[in-house]
Amino acid sequence: MTQGILRQILDYSSRANPYPLYQELRATPVFHDGDGPYVISTYHEIKGLLHDPRISSDSRNLTATAGDPLNQAEEGGSDVLPPSFLKLDPPDHDRLRRMTNRPFGPPHSPRRVEQMRGELGGIVTGLIDTIAAKGDPARIDLVEEFSYPFPVTVICRLLGVPPEDEARFHVWADTLAASLDPDPDADPAERAKKTEGARMELGMYLAGLIEERRKNPTGDMLSELATGQGPDGTMSTMEVLSTAALLLIAGHETTVNLITNGMLTLLRNPEHLERLRSEPNLAVPMVEELLRFEPPVQLLPQRSTLADIEVAGVTIPKGSSLWLILASGNRDPKRFEDPDRFDPDRPDVQHLGLGSGIHSCFGAPLARLEAALALSELARRLENPRLLEDPPPYRQNAVLRGPRHLPVAVDGIRAA
Amino acid sequence: MNSDGALERLKREGRIVVVGASLAGLRAAEKMREKGFAGELTMIGDEPHEPYDRPPLSKQVLLGMATADGTALPRRRDIDAKWRLGVPAAGLDMAASRVRMADGDEVEYDRLLIATGVRARPWPNPEEAALDGVFVLRTRGDAAALERALAAGPGRVLVIGAGFTGSEIASACRERGLAVTVAERADAPLVGALGGVVGAVAADMHRENGVDLRTGIMVTALEGDSSGRVRAAHLSDGTTLEAEVVVVSLGAQRNTEWLAGSGLGAGPRGIACDAGCRAFDIMGIVTDDIYVAGDVARSPHALFGYQFLSLEHWGNAVAQAETAAHNMLSTSAERRPHLWVPAFWSSQFGVNIKSVGVPSMGTEIMITQGSRAERRFVGVYGYQGRVIGAVTFDQCRWLDFYEQQIEQTAPFPPPYPTVDRRPEGERPLPADFPDPSVPTHGPTITLSGHSPADRRMTFTPAHN
Fold this sequence. Notes:
The complex is a heterodimer of chains A (416) and B (464). Chain A is of the alpha+beta class. Chain A has helices spanning 4-10, 19-26, 43-50, 69-73, 92-101, 112-115, 117-134, 142-147, 149-159, 166-179, 188-215, 221-227, 237-268, 270-278, 283-293, 326-329, 364-381; strands at residues 30-31, 38-40, 55-56, 140-141, 300-305, 309-311, 314-316, 321-324, 382-383, 386-387, 407-409, 412-413. Chain A has one domain (4-413): CATH 1.10.630.10. A 5-stranded mixed β-sheet of chain A has the order 1-2-8-5-3, with helices on one face. A 3-stranded antiparallel β-sheet of chain A has the order 4-11-10. A two-stranded antiparallel sheet of chain A has the order 6-7. In chain A, β6 and β7 form a beta hairpin. Chain A starts with a helix and ends with a strand. By secondary structure, chain B is α/β, with parallel strands linked by helices. In chain B, the strands form 7 sheets. A 6-stranded mixed β-sheet of chain B has the order 3-2-1-7-21-20, covered by helices on one side. In chain B, strands 24-25-28-27-26-29 form a 6-stranded antiparallel β-sheet, sandwiched between helices. In chain B, strands 9-16-10-11-12 form a 5-stranded parallel β-sheet, with helices on one face. At the A-B interface, β3 of A face β26 and α8 of B. Chain B: Residues 15-321 form the FAD/NAD(P)-binding domain. Chain B: Pfam families: Pyr_redox_2 (PF07992), Reductase_C (PF14759). Chain B: Residues 409-464 are annotated as: Disordered. Chain B: This is Ferredoxin reductase.
């Protein structure tokens, strides 16, 4: 096996089904070739590394990245904002994540997500109603018309973006998301310019909103982040900005893909779609199995080693770049029986779809609720939905993997 | 084979008796049914309640956030058992395979599982212990009574003993805004379980949260008023402390008295069993039909030099119960050892404390991540050049890694850098455990002896 397999995984032709390549990769749990990254593809090894304090998420600790095919393919972060906690190690990571969690989750705000349930249900109903009123039942793009707009609206409500500004917010979010998914035919300089423009405008807009909320807090996340008086003090405006940008970007594309991958999987397994229609409570275990079966984040390409470490008999030198292929660990037959079968009744589904350890998905409770509401409502309201293209067209991005469009036909749409 | 036939018959129509209807007993019973045991299952428990969970009793229940009777353990499956609740087992006739009940009844078994656990060590002076306002905390009834007393807003609460339970009680009192004094005979809270370095952090947490922590001190007597209510405690430094509520938190005693004279290897340190959970008799011979699980069991652990470990840990109770149940219904070739790596957790003063391995075996500790001053750190314990345990304060997500280090007998001090290494973590410190011959209130682990044939191991008939 050569580094060819990493190129193949990144190659667009593998996007619809990378799983056979992952299976091939698992034959070598720690794969390394030339000056490329060390690629970990088996469940227990990935899980171990996610809890290993000798692994850093801070890219400043990387010394050997020359051969990392993703670092060349992917757009670097903005130099304008300080790094978000996603790309920091403790104690900075812990402090920022704690401060961000204070207005979001337990123990300080145990009800924030649950209190959004009604509002999320309203957004879902509104989007499906719009499809019913304006869409063509013979061809509905579930990405454009449903799973794409939904999470951005949710993040706007969570942060406290005023409704009249939501449309502008959607435009910036679209541009930034597109930057994660480079169109190979577009001019890279032009794209970079557009992205930087959107980033600047979004930054300016959020900075203005943060200042406003600092003066007149309204109880939303942005107000709480800007005025929070916890034991860790108050975030600087720059910290609030980079945190808000993180929530927007990390919470957007991933949730779009979770919902889209979910509908695609259910349309391929109509018996489960039918079960979900009659038993909406099945949405919760179904989302867990989806996070295993088609995780929205396929791999974590940003980690590096602070020491020489031994994994599955291979010594990975200090300063090496690691790729942790979560989606491959989720299909590891040493951990999951019959791993390539979608089975919502799986009794023990401790997947890696939301990561594990200190960087495990911050927005997990919200993402789970969004996906459960979205899938159960789509299952209930779409009459006899059929997939029009299988596989559907995918986005370029191999990391945040999901369909760009999901065209379906329906017989009709049931009333809310 | 003949024994196979016997096993099949046992599974089909045998009689299994479980003495002890708490966490270990229930999980074992569920596992037996899961493994296809279709015979008669009897659950004997001295408390009148079906199995309930104890960890919330010193936490949510004392804060009034949950009620004591709302802590029933969730059932994994129906166990279709005959419940004998409210009457304790009083004796065992090994030759006749019979459990004698306190009401004189007898229950016969083909396989017996003993999971009688521990009880709170009472205040040694029975008259003082009987005063109104003096509590222990172990059972649901204890928790309900103590919660009522705290809700009444006493002027001061005295907690005797700063182990995990005592510290959690003090934390709950402070959260309720009550004045609380903690008296501990060691130099700091938690020293028996975690040593002096970590104990010092715990002491700071007590004091920062407004606990009047007094260490190196003993309560010598409790004093009641004319109506039989506790009013004060006398301390070994000659002072007197007024308190309306006194909580005695001096650790646990194993419930083995009912086995006195039975010939089973049971005593104040628990019931010795092999790694497969089979009990030893007093001759050091393993029995084949009597199994032990949970807090009352002591079994040799390969990872820790085959020492006999007695672990009063929630997770241990579950894992050991499942192993015992499996082995009770297996051929000898299918039996499995109980190889659980010790782990426990506590929450106090807003800090989540977790530990793996056996910190109390450690002679040194190294703060590999974070900072003690910030109350967020990982402490790794070393023993003879290897990692033997670890503790985290609000850093539990790293614990899986350190558990692996213990399982792999990784070298100590850890030779590698980690994220969040501070100057205080550059070299190991003496772990500062008290001399084991001096009793403290904290240890949740008792180490003793190396093998069942060890001559130093003596079984003392249970008197107290």
